[in-house]
Amino acid sequence: MNRAALEAQLAQLPLAQYAFFPTSALTFSERIRTVCRTECPRYHSTWACPPAVGSVAQCRARCLSYPEGLLLVTLTEVGDIADMEQTLATRPAHEALTRQVAALLRAQGLSVYGLSTESCAVCETCAWPDAPCRHPELMFPCVESQGIVVTELAERYGIEYQYGNNVVTWFSLLLFREE
């Protein structure tokens, strides 16, 4: 990977912050999966969510098969952060940027496993569990679906994520390896 060329490209994008990291720095927790199971309405409804993504142990093994990662952060201000519809409406721009950076990594000949904010919104209705994913190349499972404690990773690499008021912080992880 030509990191200098990649960083020059990243500098042209509306990223608030980013950090390269070894995937060995990731922390996995069953507690995060409990939040998925008890609080997320998308749990048990899509290929990008538990239980379809596998156990936390399986997710950990998959993630660690990619030795390096890139943490991406975008920020968006909304009128009322408590308005979930308004807040979630800012997510597509972050997802598009995540796809753009994944394409930059792939252009350097890297294999990329992307994790982002989605429980997958590619299809109007997910094929799970009756049929295979229609667009696995477009799906980015949610970071939390893997059991990853993303705030711990952000803190370890000096990434700010609490801006208060009505600022939404979006995270993505792009895990990569040489093909």
Structure report:
The protein has helices at about 5-10, 30-40, 55-65, 85-90, 90-105, 150-155, and strands at about 15-20, 70-75, 110-115, 165-179. About 30% of the residues lie in helices and about 20% in strands. A four-stranded antiparallel sheet has the order 1-2-4-3, covered by helices on one side. The longest helix has 17 residues, at about 90-105. The protein is globular and about 45 Å long. The mean pLDDT is about 90. The chain is of the alpha+beta class. It has six helices and four strands, in the order αβααβααβαβ. The N and C termini lie close together (about 10 Å).
Helix content: 25-40%
Poorly predicted tracts of residues: none
Average pLDDT, all residues = 92
**Largest β sheet strand count, sense and barrel closure:** 4 strands, antiparallel
Structural class: alpha+beta
- Tally the beta strands: 4
What fraction strand? 15-25%
Task: Report strand order across the widest sheet.
Answer: 1-2-4-3
Q: How much is the radius of gyration in Å?
A: 16 Å
Order of helices and strands: HEHHEHHEHE
Secondary structure tally, helices: 6
The 3D shape can be described as: globular
Distance between the termini: 11 Å
How are the secondary structure elements laid out?
Elements: H1 3-10, E1 17-22, H2 30-39, H3 56-64, E2 68-77, H4 84-88, H5 91-107, E3 110-115, H6 150-156, E4 167-178
Antiparallel strand pairs: 1-2, 2-4, 3-4
Question: In brief, what are we looking at here?
Answer:
The chain is an alpha+beta fold and 179 residues long. Helix content is 31%, strand content 19%.
